[in-house]
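Continuing the series of single-chain predictions for the mutant panel. This is the parent chain; the variants come on the following pages.
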Amino acid sequence: MIRTILWIGFVVSVVFFYVQHSKFKDAGVSDIEDYEYAASSDALQILESWEKAGLVKNVKVTIYYDFVFIVIYLLLMIGCSNDQVTLERNIVLNSLLRINIGLAPIVALLDLSENLILLHNITPSNSHIYSSWVTLTKFTLAYWIVALWIISNLKTRIVYKVQSSAAS
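Parent structure:
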C-alpha cells in the first residue's frame, strides 16, 4: 500500500515538474536545470529573465515541491533496491544493490544541498554559489542506482522465465 502511494506520488511529481518546465519553455527562458549548471554571469542573466517573465515564484514553488519529491524518490530507491536484493542471486549484482541502499540517502542529501543552494542563489542580494558539481554528482548517482536496479530486475525476470520454461 505504501509503495503504491509512493509510486503515485512519483508520477504526480513528474507531471508537476513537466508542467513547471513547460511554463519556462513557453516563456522562452532557461529552466531550473540550466540554472543549476550555470556560471555566475549566466545564472544572473537567467534569474533576470525569470524576473521579466514573472517566473521567480514558479522557481520557488518548484524547489519547495522538490523537497517533498526527495522523500518520495529516496524511499522508492531504497525500497526497490532492497526488494531486488532479496531476488538477486548474482553476488556482484546483489552487492551493488546493497551499496545502492547506502547511496540513495547520499543522492537525497545532494539534492537537499542543491535546493538550498538554489534558494540562496535566487535571492538577489546573495552571492552566487556554483551548484553544478552537486547537481552532476546527484544525477550520476541517481542514474547509477536506477540503471543497476533495472539491469538486475530484467536479469532476474529473464532467469526466472528460463527456469520456469525448463521446469515445464
